[in-house]
Amino acid sequence: MAQHSSLNFLSNSTSTSAPDTIVDNKTGTTMGALILSLVFLLGLPGNVFVIWSILARARKQTVTTLLILNLAIADGSLMALTPFFIIYLILKKWVFKKMMCKILFYLCLANMYASIQLIMLMSLYRLVAVLWPQRISVITSRRTVMRVLAVVWALVMVVSVPAIIYRDVRNEKNTTLCESFYDDDKSYHAALQYMPEIVLGFVIPYTVILVSYICILRRIRQTKFRRRIRSEKLILAIVLTFCLFWLPYHIVNLVQVSWGLCQEGPVKTLLGKIWHNSRAVTSSIAFISSCVNPVLYFFAGKSYIQREGLAFMARLFEGTGLDSATRKSRQNSQNSRDKDKEADTIMLKDKDQDSVTNSNSNVKPVKNGK
């Protein structure tokens, strides 16, 4: 039986391609459980602190803080789910109900999509703010931003539905597994389900992010406002760490897509062994990306700690956002326009004075009252 799971830790095997399940891989399950335990202890309180900092301490919820807030909500939600998967890996069987099996893996996939889409929005926002600062106010009103965020969350909820459709609880090899099950002649369904993850969760967003930052960095090198580089470094670090921790997972996805499309034979058997032996570890490593952002924020904002106390992270987001830089650009543009208007006014006054003088010089003097 061909097997597949979306963002799964344990996937059982086909009868011909991979005789063992990932449950039988002690190294993979042990490493996965250890990684997830550390991720939970570090990531959940870290993301909760970020959420609290923005909601309770931020002076104003700008575009930057709203994006960071939603990213922390997505990451924090993912961290809250990790205890279920830790138990799954330690016991090597699914002890929760069938509905929990569907909902938990659905939420995992939805939050993965949300995280990368929010990071892509950060990159696009910075692209517009750096290249076209005079137009940023048109597309970044609070109402517009809230609508965009609502659309993003709605889309990720929709594209994650296959995790609910295919996920099921079954007994395989004397153990209970929460997996996506397919008929023997439908292993290509693995490709149908994994390809959206690869395309929508990695290829498209990272292409947009890469192009955005190439344009941003080129523009920064052409301008004198070097202080913007500091904020770009923080967001660039978020992008790179997300890519670093999710890349192995998507490579395994690609391997499983190839396995699903491959004909029975030694190549299919080899591909099956690769993704079975790698799935637990690479999925656990992917979770690290959701706990590393608060660590990056801490190091980026440590200069604020002594002065701002517990509000240091809120001050960091306010300081690193391009909202202030955009306002300065608009203010500079307004000042330039004011100076031009002032110059035009002075020129008009000079012209009026000249016309008055010329008019007076053309008046003939009246002699003897005549």
Automatic annotation (TrEMBL):
<feature type="transmembrane region" description="Helical">
    <location>
        <begin position="67"/>
        <end position="91"/>
    </location>
</feature>
<dbReference type="InterPro" id="IPR017452">
    <property type="entry name" value="GPCR_Rhodpsn_7TM"/>
</dbReference>
<keyword id="KW-0675">Receptor</keyword>
<protein>
    <submittedName>
        <fullName>Leukotriene B4 receptor 1</fullName>
    </submittedName>
</protein>
<dbReference type="Pfam" id="PF00001">
    <property type="entry name" value="7tm_1"/>
</dbReference>
<keyword id="KW-1133">Transmembrane helix</keyword>
<keyword id="KW-0472">Membrane</keyword>
<dbReference type="GO" id="GO:0007204">
    <property type="term" value="P:positive regulation of cytosolic calcium ion concentration"/>
</dbReference>
<feature type="transmembrane region" description="Helical">
    <location>
        <begin position="103"/>
        <end position="125"/>
    </location>
</feature>
<feature type="transmembrane region" description="Helical">
    <location>
        <begin position="234"/>
        <end position="251"/>
    </location>
</feature>
<keyword id="KW-0812">Transmembrane</keyword>
<dbReference type="GO" id="GO:1905523">
    <property type="term" value="P:positive regulation of macrophage migration"/>
</dbReference>
<dbReference type="InterPro" id="IPR003981">
    <property type="entry name" value="Leukotriene_B4_rcpt"/>
</dbReference>
<feature type="region of interest" description="Disordered">
    <location>
        <begin position="325"/>
        <end position="370"/>
    </location>
</feature>
<feature type="transmembrane region" description="Helical">
    <location>
        <begin position="280"/>
        <end position="300"/>
    </location>
</feature>
<feature type="compositionally biased region" description="Basic and acidic residues">
    <location>
        <begin position="336"/>
        <end position="354"/>
    </location>
</feature>
<dbReference type="GO" id="GO:0009986">
    <property type="term" value="C:cell surface"/>
</dbReference>
<keyword id="KW-0807">Transducer</keyword>
<keyword id="KW-1003">Cell membrane</keyword>
<feature type="transmembrane region" description="Helical">
    <location>
        <begin position="194"/>
        <end position="214"/>
    </location>
</feature>
<feature type="transmembrane region" description="Helical">
    <location>
        <begin position="33"/>
        <end position="55"/>
    </location>
</feature>
<comment type="similarity">
    <text>Belongs to the chemokine-like receptor (CMKLR) family.</text>
</comment>
<dbReference type="GO" id="GO:0004974">
    <property type="term" value="F:leukotriene receptor activity"/>
</dbReference>
<feature type="transmembrane region" description="Helical">
    <location>
        <begin position="145"/>
        <end position="166"/>
    </location>
</feature>
<feature type="domain" description="G-protein coupled receptors family 1 profile">
    <location>
        <begin position="46"/>
        <end position="297"/>
    </location>
</feature>
<dbReference type="GO" id="GO:0007200">
    <property type="term" value="P:phospholipase C-activating G protein-coupled receptor signaling pathway"/>
</dbReference>
<dbReference type="GO" id="GO:0006954">
    <property type="term" value="P:inflammatory response"/>
</dbReference>
<dbReference type="GO" id="GO:0004875">
    <property type="term" value="F:complement receptor activity"/>
</dbReference>
<dbReference type="InterPro" id="IPR000276">
    <property type="entry name" value="GPCR_Rhodpsn"/>
</dbReference>
<keyword id="KW-0325">Glycoprotein</keyword>
<dbReference type="InterPro" id="IPR000826">
    <property type="entry name" value="Formyl_rcpt-rel"/>
</dbReference>
<keyword id="KW-0597">Phosphoprotein</keyword>
<keyword id="KW-0297">G-protein coupled receptor</keyword>
<dbReference type="GO" id="GO:0005886">
    <property type="term" value="C:plasma membrane"/>
</dbReference>
